[in-house]
Amino acid sequence: MSQDRTAFDFTTPLDRRVYPTTKWHLYDEDVLPLWVADMDFAVAPAIQTALAERLAHPVFGYTHADRTLKQTLCQWSHERYGWEIKPDWQHWLPGVVPALHVASLALTEPGDGVLTVTPIYPPFLKVADNTGRTTQTAPMRAPTENDPLWRLDFDAMEAAVTPRTRLLFWCHPHNPTGRVFDEEELSRLADFIERHDLIVCSDELHCDLILDGSAHRPLAMAEPRLASRTITLWAASKTFNVAGLTSACAVISDDDLRARFKRGCVGLMPSNNIMGETAAQAAYARGEPWRQALLDQLRDNVALIESFVARWPGVHMSIPQATYLAWLDLREAGLGETPQKEVLTRARVALNNGADFGWPGFARLNFGTGYALLEEALTRMDTLLSAGNEP
């Protein structure tokens, strides 16, 4: 279902430097920041209205996820994924990264292994060290001429796992490659998880940002045999651009696993965020037209990136199936060992360093921004990367 974008404003530039902003204040003012994963678009009007209405009541004490919010998420899951979840399966908390740390502390012992595949969202690679566990990684298979997609390398995963591996951090759809894993891969992953008796934290934050028309299949739904060992992590933060309101939900169908996870939150998790839950309720109840319009805008942005990459010798990109993130292979672009530094210094465009994701020589580009700003950033990069220009 496509939505008329004229009903929403994805073009008017918003001055994000007016308030302290991670994305726009890290670099000098002449730098165009296409790095950290938030968007430059105004949130859905339904969310703005809901927040204004909540602000009209001038008391902001402790809160909790009420039955209405939980039922709304159940309905969203039913309508978008065909997964029938229950309100009692939900545990709302202030963010997915805290949830990963809770899972490590509550479900493993010091020295146990926490496994993930790379490249991966950088916090995944820090949780084990932060919690006294052992970081274990397995590289994915990079695209080739015959296969343009990033794939799971199950041989590498078997080589990385040990008898002390207890937890798998899984990202689906995948950040940073934009992969939407297919049924065969999910089935093989389930075999691997069962064979090694792992618990899975499935980060599915980008599941409502699928660009290629395929449907998201939550891991615990796609592979019901994993339901008793899976923590599904959802949030409105990425899809609806409300990351600063720090609210997320752990969906856990197994009573024992959910109880262990909730006990791990005690003393570590602050009270839920009033505004975050207000925004989530509005997003899931009334944000669908805005989301559809957003997806159309992001598809146009992907097409723009493709047109530039096509004329950049030595630069490769697997077209993202989901997310607003492009994963660029710059290893053959003639920009040295840290190409994102060259892009920053010489083109004044800020990208994420692929080394932080476990893959040096790559860079992550956030295209969740206005078309005109994205075009300006790509034009700057073109001076370094296009055929005929000296690097």
UniProtKB/TrEMBL annotation:
All copies of domain Aminotransferase class I/classII large, residue ranges: 30-380
Keyword annotations: Lyase, Pyridoxal phosphate
SUPFAM superfamilies listed in its UniProt record: PLP-dependent transferases (SSF53383)
Highest taxon of source: Bacteria
GO molecular function: cysteine-S-conjugate beta-lyase activity; pyridoxal phosphate binding
InterPro entries, A to Z: Aminotransferase_I/II_large (IPR004839), C-S_lyase_PatB-like (IPR027619), Class-II_PLP-Dep_Aminotrans (IPR051798), PyrdxlP-dep_Trfase (IPR015424), PyrdxlP-dep_Trfase_major (IPR015421), PyrdxlP-dep_Trfase_small (IPR015422)
Uppermost EC category: lyase
EC numbers: 4.4.1.13
Keyword Lyase: yes
Protein name as catalogued: cysteine-S-conjugate beta-lyase
Taxonomic placement: Bacteria, Pseudomonadati, Pseudomonadota, Gammaproteobacteria, Oceanospirillales
